[in-house]
Amino acid sequence: MESLERFARSKLDDLAAQSLKRTLAETDRYGPTEARRDGRDVISFCCNDYLNLSHHPQVIDAAVEATRRFGVGSGASRLVTGNHPLFADLEARLARYKEAEDAVVFGSGYLTNIGIIPSLIRPDDLIVADEYCHACLFAGSQISHAKLLIFRHNDLAHCAELLARHRQDHPHCLILTDGVFSMDGDLAPVTELVDLAEAHDAWLMTDDAHGLGVIAGGKGSSFVTGKKARVPLQMGTLSKAVGVYGGYLCASKPVIDLIKTRARSFIYTTGLPPGSVAACIAALELIENHPELVAKPMQKARRFTRALNLPDPESCIVPLILGDPDIALAASQDLIEQGFLVTAIRPPTVPPGTARLRFTFTAEHRDTDIDRLVEAVRPHMPRPQDGAA
Ligand SMILES: *Cc1c(COP(=O)(O)O)cnc(C)c1O
Fold first, then answer.
1. 60 and 46 in one domain?
2. How far apart are CA 192 and CA 43, in angstroms?
3. Cβ-contact 100, 251 below 8 angstroms
4. In this structure, which residue's CA is closest to atom 2 in ligand 1?
5. Residue pLDDT, tens place only, 270-323
6. What are phi and psi of 341, to 5 degrees?
7. What is the pLDDT of residues 104-129, one digit of tens each?
8. Is residue 298 part of a domain?
9. What is the CATH number of the domain that holds 373?
10. Which of 173, 219, 312, 344 pairs with 6 at a CA distance of 20 to 30 A?
């Protein structure tokens, strides 16, 4: 036992020395954008609840009603007795909205990715992934034991080069990208990746955790041209703009049927609670029927970037890269003291030397709060900006 504690303590000391130790801070999110931390009221600019649906009365009512009707937990894996009637409704709705034949819902986005990839890809296959893909795409890739090649971020030529060199040595090939990159907020060149994938008989999978409910009128990164790009594997989460919890894959019927019978993180885990599924259905209904709501997070993000002379945002995630973890932590601390919750993102979540503040903008942020945030951030800008005092 002593060696175990010694091991844990020395690991923690190492991380603390590099300002890389993580700690949980209790955060009471008592309103759509309001939170209390350490007894201080703050406006959160770091939730992924882009439409504030986690606090929407209709979404909450749906969760409460379903909980009363079906109970708080689903009781078992969906393949045993956990497949309550709400799943069929949610999956049909997702498939229709994403213009796919079918959909499957998992317990979370992370579980979705670690389930899908090894179900489709075997050890002798190839995976080609953008270097900034979310951690759970890499986790799923590792579980598959396939050969994994990384292309430089959004670099189509590099991706093409890897495919040209290695594709023919493997029976199947999966291309992985985030639709919206979670720490940089930029979009993947989805249409071009579709062409590249098709030219090499590779399967393209996009992780649209930050696209659903925000990008292309809410339909996500496969729809930026106004028409659905031929992405055969559209994955996403129900934990961000949808405001609840869960993950999904939209794809053709045979692919979805295969995933339901093969994905270990679908089979060997309990189904989502009925209240969560009902809340997702209510939230998707709001997303589909309220384009004015869906448009808001981008308007708020633009107000912020324009005031600071930053490039126009591609999503409602805006990074401010500060470099050193200590600098990012100090900036985050200063903002908290001024009433704004903005987390510092450090390696290994982002590459070394690119620690940053990651701002997220949501529908219900007040313009006056954004303007106050701008003034609080100005002194932390990495170099003098035009128009700055
Ligand atoms: C948050 C996130 C996930 C994980 O989704 P959860 O539902 O939170 O497990 C997966 N991919 C990306 C790109 C994400 O940002």
1. no
2. 38
3. yes
4. 209
5. 999 999 999 999 999 999 999 999 999 999 999 999 999 999 999 999 999 999
6. -95, 110
7. 999 999 999 999 999 999 999 999 99
8. no
9. 3.90.1150.10
10. 344
